[in-house]
Design brief:
6% strand, Rossmann fold, mainly alpha, 25 helices, 3-stranded antiparallel sheet
Length: 591
């Protein structure tokens, strides 16, 4: 007869065998690289291993049959000492939709930070993705912490109902259990689960234009189309946002990483409720017909109509209440985007003056957000934001403007803006729109080709630049856009800047190009160009800062010595000017 201790040992060992086999299989799969491409959020660039970038395949874990595009923001694999690294988290508004990522508010933050932190190398890592919500932020929090950001910016909350793993979404588990949804995300980090998932579900193909695919995605993600205020699904969305976001903020706060969170804003004045609830529609119509005696008198009615809207693509006010409560205890810093847009709107109620659709800010709105988040960073870093000639805004190039308008037109001809229309009719209308643009001017034709073929944005920009329809100003804008697609191509950047610097009418664009090159490469050439252009514009403080930076990099640069001599002569210091000019002559003779 087997003794009691031996029986316990036997059953213990028997119970451990499955666990040992699972662990062994996991180790083996990892050694073989199974599923590695979708389990690693940041990967090294193939062309330059000194840099890392967000792995597009990682985003597949949140969707089925759809891969959201993510900004192409390479950053140093080993963080430099002088780097100031800004990570931005959120949904499609953070990604910049309907514009290309470099027109979104995160890059606007970067430009403004660089204007006041010239001694630092600003690194923007924009992880905004279409149709993601607080579960994605929760999933990414430790990975983001590990790349050592100096600050994390968050603008998220509109997708808590219909985004990936949302309370009323088709994407992810249908349960409202936060525990189970988080468990699924954790399992997706394992090689075993990843391999099983790939066997059952083929890897999605990123179809032409699908990276911008909110048009059909909005219809596909909805499981619970009607979500009434206060019902179980409504409350589940509020709960998941608060639970996930508090964990996200705590993760960064415990690591000593400041978090700056923006309240949410949306088009409340010009976007009627998408649902059919009579009370919401009546409130909206009443607000529209108000004859206001003071600015913003209709605000409460518009907001209440939005909050009663049963199709919840716009976040309810409860989300902003949670954001404000999270920042009131000092764990995070608040940027009140909602209040900012109300202050900057024409009537005190944000509408089409600041939005391009129901909730995505237009370029003016995105620049407002960029300025607000940048101000919060500078205030946190105790940097005084004085007026500066340093470039901070970037105007839309004509290809980007055409592409954005096309995406919005396609978006608005489908669900939920048009309900009851058959997919065939929507497809025909979309095809008709694309055909019309293809027969139009060059930038319209190229924007239509981008969404219907494998033509990339960078390829389209190259083609547009060659067109005789493009003005010198527009051509320079497109060169600037190309910099963001080729951020490590130093020779290309120098060649482009050299083409523009001789034309004073393009000084503002040349300055932005040179600032970008200086920030990405710290090459003395770009700092010298900045110094020369600022001198030409009589911006002497900025010229001095730029030339001081050039001198610190290379004290023997002939361009720097010449511009230094010119600077000191201009400000009346003839002795110092003579000293620099003598050094310039000596160096020129040697060369």
């Amino acid at each position: 007869m087997i003794s009691q201790p031996r029986r316990i040992l036997f059953y213990t060992l028997a119970g451990c065998i499955p666990i040992i086999l699972i662990v062994a299989a996991e180790v083996l799969f990892r050694l073989l690289g199974v599923g590695e491409s979708t389990r690693t959020p940041f990967i090294k660039l193939q062309e330059n291993a000194d840099y890392a970038v967000f792995n597009p395949a990682y985003a597949e874990r949140y969707f089925q049959g759809f891969t959201p595009s993510v900004a192409y923001n390479p950053f140093s694999a080993q963080k430099p000492e002088n780097s100031y690294r800004i990570v931005v988290l959120g949904g499609s508004s953070t990604a910049g939709f309907p514009y290309h990522f470099y027109y979104g508010f995160p890059e606007s933050v970067g430009r403004r930070a660089q204007a006041y932190m010239t001694e630092r190398r600003i690194e923007i890592i924009n992880l905004g993705m279409t149709a993601v919500n607080s579960y994605t932020l929760w999933d990414l929090k430790k990975r983001v912490r590990d790349i050592q950001p100096d600050v994390v910016l968050i603008y998220a909350g509109h997708n808590e109902y219909y985004g990936a793993f949302g309370a009323g979404s088709n994407i992810g588990l249908s349960t409202q259990s936060i525990f189970l949804k988080r468990l699924l995300l954790k399992l997706k980090r394992t090689a075993i689960f990843t391999s099983l998932e790939q066997l059952i579900q083929p890897r999605p193909e990123l179809l032409p234009g699908e990276s911008d695919g909110e048009q059909t995605l909005m219809a596909r993600v909805v499981r619970e189309a009607v979500i009434q205020e206060g019902d179980d699904v409504f409350l589940a969305g509020i709960k998941q946002f608060e639970t996930n976001m508090r964990d996200v903020v705590t993760e960064f706060s415990d690591a000593g990483i400041p978090v700056i969170i923006g309240t949410l804003t949306s088009n409340t004045q010009d976007q009627a409720p998408l649902g059919k609830l009579d009370e919401a529609q009546t409130l909206f119509e009443t607000a529209q017909s108000m004859s206001c005696e003071y600015r913003g008198c209709s605000r409460e009615s518009f907001i209440r109509a939005k909050d009663l809207d049963e199709i919840r693509f716009r976040a309810p006010s409860e989300i902003n209440s949670i954001i404000r409560s999270m920042t009131s205890d000092g764990e995070a810093i608040l940027v009140d985007v909602e209040q900012l847009f109300e202050n900057e709107s024409l009537t005190g109620v944000p509408g089409s003056d600041l939005f391009i659709d129901h909730l995505h800010p237009n370029q003016k709105g995105l620049e407002l957000m960029g300025a607000a988040f940048a101000s919060a960073i500078l205030e946190h870093e105790n940097i005084k934001a004085e007026p500066t000639a340093w470039p901070t805004e970037m105007k839309l190039d004509p290809l980007a403007a055409s592409h954005a308008n096309l995406l919005v037109e396609r978006l608005l001809m489908d669900y939920p803006f048009i309900q009851g229309r058959s997919p065939d009719v929507t497809a025909r209308l979309s095809d008709s729109l694309v055909a019309r643009l293809k027969s139009g001017k060059k930038t319209d034709s190229l924007s239509a080709t981008i969404v219907t073929s494998p033509l990339t944005v960078s390829e389209a920009l190259f083609e547009a630049i060659q067109s005789s329809e493009i003005t010198p100003q527009e051509r320079a804008q497109m060169y600037e856009a190309l910099f963001y697609w080729r951020p490590l191509a130093i020779d290309y950047m120098k060649q482009t800047v050299a083409q523009q610097v001789t034309e004073p009418l393009l000084d503002s664009l040349t300055t932005r190009l040179a600032v970008y090159g200086a920030n990405k490469t710290n090459d003395v050439y770009f700092w010298n160009v900045l110094g020369a252009v600022f001198l030409r514009q009589n911006h002497f403080q900025e010229a001095d800062r730029s030339l001081a930076k050039a001198e610190a990099i290379d004290s023997t640069s002939t361009a720097m010595l010449f511009n230094r001599a010119k600077y000191y002569l201009t400000v009346g210091d003839t002795l110092t000017a003579q000293s620099y000019f003598s050094r310039y002559q000596e160096k020129s003779t040697q060369n």
